[in-house]
Write a structure and sequence with these properties.
With 295 residues, the chain is mostly helical. The protein has a single domain, classed as MetI-like fold, CATH 1.10.3720.10. 72% of the residues lie in helices and 1% in strands. It has a two-stranded antiparallel ribbon with strand order 1-2. Strand 1 and strand 2 form a beta hairpin. Helix 12 runs antiparallel to helix 13.
């Protein structure tokens, strides 16, 4: 019996530091956030007024801007993962075959993932500039000046304009993940399918994709989280404008917490955002879960 207790104490001693860090830096902040969300608090004064669930009630039933931010987040949630996944899988299937210059080209596609969001936001703001931006100049140069826009000030296109650099930065990152997974597949599988006369699309659909599905499902969860949390890009490029047409939950949270100093209200929003991200991620993992294909 003493040996059992000694073994338990030995394991607990090794686990204690990790558990302590987890509790201090994850569990405690969540509990503190839940606590603050039940108060009306400006964030600077020690005075906090208890309001119970009023912050949540006002958000859900009396705040149209909150629901506008939710709808914009849903746009990112649908458009960003789908386009990013399709492009990254396409480029991965190309570069996984190893041809002359494939390493250099894949590095070029991966390079945007190394640039900070601040630099990317400023760069694309210049690209979209209505008078000196390269995008409108390029459209005019090829005779499509009718398509020129004030991209970041036009409510009809601003969300798509902000989503473009988000996709541009992430495609190369996920492409590298998928290339590594595809190259880990034994080449005999693809060679046998080619000998049997299967097309490239058939091979990708019935051999490559099932064998890298675990990597794809994890990547999709990361994409969904990124779609919810694209704060830097939106804030620097548009600050939620024009007229809140690019407002997302994280920019609205920042505005309420650090500009309007409604910290309790903003914290309630953060709680709802956490619940939303967690729920969508769990549902997505459940939906994408398949029997593991081994090779």
């Amino acid at each position: 019996m003493k040996a059992v207790y000694r073994q338990i104490g030995f394991k607990a001693g090794f686990l204690a530091p990790a558990v302590g860090i987890f509790v201090v830096f994850f569990i405690y902040p969540i509990l503190q956030t839940l606590h603050v969300s039940l108060y009306r608090w400006g964030g600077l004064s020690p005075d906090m007024d208890w309001v119970g669930l009023d912050n949540f009630r006002n958000l859900l039933f009396h705040d149209p801007i909150f629901w506008k931010a939710v709808s914009n987040n849903l746009f990112f949630l649908i458009v960003f993962p789908i386009i990013t996944l399709v492009l990254s899988l396409f480029f991965a299937s190309v570069f996984a075959r190893r041809f002359r210059g494939s390493t250099l080209l894949s590095s070029v596609y991966f390079f945007p993932a190394l640039i900070s969001w601040v630099a990317i936001s400023i760069l694309w703001s210049f690209i979209y500039h209505p008078s000196i931006g390269i995008l409108n100049s390029l459209l005019a140069g090829i005779g499509l000046e009718g398509l020129a826009r004030t991209w970041l000030a036009d409510p009809a296109v601003v969300l798509g304009a902000v989503a473009a650099p988000l996709i541009w930065r992430n495609v190369g990152f996920y492409m590298v993940m998928f290339v590594a997974a595809i190259r880990n597949i034994p080449p005999e599988y693809h060679e046998s399918a080619l000998i049997d006369g299967a097309s490239r699309w058939t091979i990708f659909r019935h051999i490559t994709l099932p064998l890298i599905w675990e990597v794809v499902s994890v990547a999709v969860v990361f994409m969904v989280v990124n779609a919810f949390l694209a704060f830097d890009l939106v804030w620097i490029m548009t600050q939620g404008g024009p007229s809140r047409h690019s407002e997302i939950l994280t920019t609205y949270f920042y505005r309420k917490a650090f500009i309007e100093f409604q910290m309790g209200y903003a914290t309630a929003m953060a709680v709802l955002l956490f619940i939303g991200v967690l729920t969508v991620s769990l549902l997505l993992r459940r939906f994408m879960q398949r029997e593991t294909v081994e090779y």
